[in-house]
Amino acid sequence: MDARDWLAAVGRFVLPPRCMACGDRGIDGTELCAGCLASLPLNTTRCLRCALPLPRETAICGPCQRNPPPWHAIWVPFRYAQPVDRLESRFKFHGQLAAGRTLSQCWLRADPPDELPQAIVPVPLHVSRLRARGFNQALELVKPLARRFGISVCADALERVRMTEAQSELDAVERARNVRGAFAVRRLPYVRHVAVVDDVMTTGATLGACVRALRDAGVERVDVWALARTGLGALSH
């Protein structure tokens, strides 16, 4: 336990955590109350290839049957709905790192993937966006998972080699075009199996571009992890 974790533990003992979503008393050492923990939007009915939330149980959605995604396996335990979406907005766009810590706590409570990778690669931000935001949200979210699973985080494995438009402003086709060729492998130790991690998955275009860059560099198996999946549109490969 480093100094920050030790201070946080002392703070939680002196001042029990409050729910980041509603302000009630947190439970089980988390910053969510019992009600908000119970209401976490689990992504249980989903496509097994792209994690798209579906209205009923099915193995693989139509778009993935027609055009399979480039990754091997996927782990996205939540849907992008309350309270996850509100916490994510506060974390990503308002710099509230406590909200990010709460999201990591939620992620740690989810059932882990069937097979763990040898290394975790967070989706990188362009240097100008990283400078403006001050942190990479994917990296911050995955650090507690890496500690829990005992997996190395290769924060410099991928580089975003050109500035792209904000994906939130684009449709599925534009998103895929926007990130095509935007990533390059820079510093990656020899590993056979890695997981690329992002905070929220919408169409899968960004994750897909990262996967292709890693596979082109010789990585045998690349999985994708994300905290939450939106239900907007079909996957764009």
Explain this structure to me?
- This protein is of the alpha/beta class.
- It has two domains: 1-39, no CATH class; 43-229, Rossmann fold (3-Layer(aba) Sandwich).
- It is built from nine helices and eight strands.
- The protein has helices at residues 3-14, 34-38, 62-66, 84-94, 97-109, 127-133, 137-149, 172-179, 205-216; strands at 74-75, 78-79, 119-122, 152-153, 158-160, 183-185, 193-201, 221-229.
- The chain is globular, with a radius of gyration of 18 Å.
Relevant terms:
six-stranded parallel β-sheet; 8 strands; 14% strand; disordered C terminus; Rossmann fold; single chain; 2 domains; globular
Give a brief rundown of this model:
By secondary structure, the protein is α/β, with parallel strands linked by helices. It is built from nine helices and eight strands.
Order of helices and strands: HHHEEHHEHHEEHEEHE
Second-tier CATH architecture of the largest domain: 3-Layer(aba) Sandwich
Give start-end ranges of low-pLDDT stretches. Answer: 233-237
* Distance between the ends: 41 Å
Helix content range of the residues, please? 25-40%
Major β-sheet, in short?
A: 6 strands, parallel
Q: Rg to the nearest angstrom?
A: 18 Å
Structural class: alpha/beta
- In CATH, what is the class of the largest domain? Alpha Beta
| Total helical segments | 9
Total number of β-strand segments? 8
